[in-house]
Amino acid sequence: MSVLVVGSIALDTVKTPFGEATDAVGGSGVYFAAGASFFTPVNVVGVVGQDFPMHSLDFLKARGVDLHGLSVKPGKTFRWSGVYGFDLNVRETLDTQLNAFATFKPSIPDVYRKTDYVFLANIDPELQLDVLRQVERPRLVVCDTMDFWIEGKRDALLRTLQEVDVLILNDAETRELAEEADLIKAARRVLTMGPKTVVVKKGEHGALLISSDAFFAAPAFPTESVFDPTGAGDSFAGGFVGHLARTGDLSHETMRQAVIYGSVIASFNVERFSMERLKSLSQEEIRERFRAFQKITHFDE
Amino acid sequence: MSVLVVGSIALDTVKTPFGEATDAVGGSGVYFAAGASFFTPVNVVGVVGQDFPMHSLDFLKARGVDLHGLSVKPGKTFRWSGVYGFDLNVRETLDTQLNAFATFKPSIPDVYRKTDYVFLANIDPELQLDVLRQVERPRLVVCDTMDFWIEGKRDALLRTLQEVDVLILNDAETRELAEEADLIKAARRVLTMGPKTVVVKKGEHGALLISSDAFFAAPAFPTESVFDPTGAGDSFAGGFVGHLARTGDLSHETMRQAVIYGSVIASFNVERFSMERLKSLSQEEIRERFRAFQKITHFDE
After folding, report:
1. Rounded CA separation A246/A239 (Å)
2. CA angle A100, A104, A105 (to 5 degrees)
């Protein structure tokens, strides 16, 4: 089953303690598509400027990612610039130039309107809702957001959440959205806002999957070689939604596997700058790390 | 197999957002003994003042904890006073009165000298080493410490660690001891200091078990009713060492179970003030929560 993603396509300039990359391809839509492409066909809706190096997405096309929903607008591509210190959990945004993204109004191509799986990447919640108005009711709507929208467009976000099945947030966003300091209580409060399931990303501490009657806790893969955390959350979402679409199964058991696949993809993604690691990643490496996750979490009765 | 613990016995005055307790029985030796007592006989070595309400330890005696190593000294008992805010991960010490504990020189009774399992609770590393000089080589030496000793008695601590099999630390202590910000790298560096295994306690984020050739990650039990975190680490250690002593098996697989049992005991302990929850806890509740841990961490291939 194919997945529709609506999100940003960006050129990122990133500095970490281990090096830097200039105008590297990034953005939530691209990281998600790269992650999901290992599992299922992906349709991308987004916008770039005339300066965008289209060849940089050739590796996605080669994996069956459909880029016909990508429109090219006059002017420049969305640019983000940030720096990470030795605590890679904390990043500082140096510069954001919305450029072509500033007037982005997602228009879903007719051929994408019957999509069973939709991922609303981190964009204005009004645009997220607009996307849902353009598609026939999907089997599964998965949504991401961030502090910027929680603080600045709370009402619009709450309207969007009414139509969302799975909300993916980090721990700070979960607390902020719920206005509750205790993370478990906060996640349960988010379940009263529309989503039937909440996935809480905790970075180096792993992820939680919480619904009204089920709870799953996964660690992060214990990597010692985090190089560039950019895109970890979106590539996680790619693996998560990709596995659900591949199996066509939305049971809690399959969602648990999906959390692990998301963690696997994210753990590879952070090993190199930009898309470098996801470009070279193989199915066998994904399977191996999934099995490694089983080994590090298993215990007998 | 019985366990020998050498640690503090205290009267704690604790304030949390949910209430307060005055002069409640506490201390690392007591929390450890209470946790381990569900699994195995425990011998306690420690000191109290003449004001100590001995009847407050009756529940331990009833569970087979041997208190003959507890000496009563003139003067008052060690007192600690602290307050927790809504972020229960952070506590502020208001007052510490060492009293009888100030001159504590652990003297191991002859009947305890042949002990297979020894837990060196968080006391001066010179005293920890002195305890090991008084016992025949145990099968397993497990040790706790804290920032105070890492900073103030680093050389003595490093000497003690040479004789330690398993070191139990929290994440901040692991980073500080190893002088390394990355937690996984830090834990691996601690493995070069003597211990064959490191257990890293991460509070609400669970625990890691790391040895040179094995890695295990466990979440915390997703409780929404943390009431008083005092003693969480020591009761964790009690469950951990208690399970190892009960089974007599020091394999990595059994250590994984031990981490889960430690987490189970700690998760109960924080549900009430002081020893209240561990007093009323039953074997059946422990088994149930162990199974709940399996449910929240399991995923299929």
Report:
1. 10
2. 155
Report the domain count for chain A. 1
ipTM of the prediction: 0.87
* CA B126, chain centre distance (Å): 18
What's the DSSP call for residue A114? S
pLDDT by residue (tens digit) across A250-267? 999 999 999 999 999 999
B134 touches chain A (CB under 8 A): no
Instruction: Give the integer Cα–Cα distance in Å for A222 and A153.
Output: 36
The structure's pTM equals 0.92
Mean pLDDT of B179-206: 95
pLDDT bucket at A77, cuts 50 / 70 / 90: very high
Pairwise CB contact (< 8 Å): A299 & B300: no
Mean pLDDT on A31-50: 98
Give domain status of residue B3, yes or no.
no
What CATH number is attached to the domain comprising B63?
A: 3.40.1190.20
Question: In a 3-state reduction of DSSP, which class is residue A140?
Answer: strand
Q: Which residues of A touch B217 (CB under 8 A)?
A: 206, 219-220, 222, 296-297
Domain that holds residue A80: 3-297
Residue B4 lies in a domain: no
